[in-house]
Design goal:
The chain is mainly alpha-helical. The chain is built from 4 helices and no strands. Helix 1 packs across helix 4. The longest helix has 15 residues.
Length: 70
């Protein structure tokens, strides 16, 4: 799965970037001004869209795609 093929919303992309930085849901919620439950739900949606089973795999996918950029 390529990130651009996942059709992430702006919020999903912002949360994925935070996941890539190793932040926990509570930290992401505080930083983005969201409820932790909202972050948890969005993370689940991101994992589904990226067809990965956990946030570590999502972070690795993000890292791999960043490395491909010129």
């Amino acid at each position: 799965m390529r990130l651009r093929d996942a059709n992430l919303t702006m919020l999903e992309a912002r949360i994925l970037i935070q996941i890539g930085k190793g932040k926990r849901n509570a930290e992401i919620a505080e930083e983005l001004g969201l409820a932790e439950k909202t972050v948890r739900n969005v993370v689940s949606t991101i994992l589904d869209k990226l067809e990965v089973s956990n946030r570590t795999e999502a972070a690795l996918l993000l890292r791999e795609e960043r490395e491909e950029l010129p």
